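As noted in the main text, all predictions were made from sequence alone. Below is one such record, for Cytochrome b562.
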Amino acid sequence: MPHTVPGPAFIRAYRPSQIGMHWLIVGLVAMQFLTGQGMAAWFEAPQTRMETTAGTAWVHGIIGTSILIAMLYRLGLRRAFGAPPPPPNEPSIIQKVSRANHYLFYIFLIGMPIAGLTAILTGSEVVAEIHAWAALILLALIAAHILGALWHLVKRDGVVSRMTSRDY
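Prediction:
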């Protein structure tokens, strides 16, 4: 009997590589919010860049570039291995909101590092401002994602365990 790889409809959990990338990106994004104010100060005070916040700015830029690389890799993993389907009893509107939130994560976590690097390399205050506003939207996406995870924990429907299980 030939060995077949089940399609995305049969996936019960994310693969360990997908889980690892998820939590790596969570940590990197958290560090970005810790270094973001230093980056803003660096951008707003060009005459004192080297004296005050250059270290924080470099860390922020390196982490942002790391997020970009990690997200592109994660996107490749998603295309290669898919994702578990939503729970069968999940209301359609919840599925749509969840899907939109995940798509927006990919857009923002790929677009923000590009915008940040563009702002630094060109000195564009407009792009820097867009990047800063995008960070606020990203915070809202993160809050929605956490609330969704908590909701699934309360429901005990197994959704959260898909990001922690090795049962793929």
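The chain has four helices and no strands. The domain at 11-84+91-163 is CATH 1.20.950 (Fumarate Reductase Cytochrome B subunit). These features were considered when defining construct boundaries for the mutagenesis experiments described in Section 2.9.
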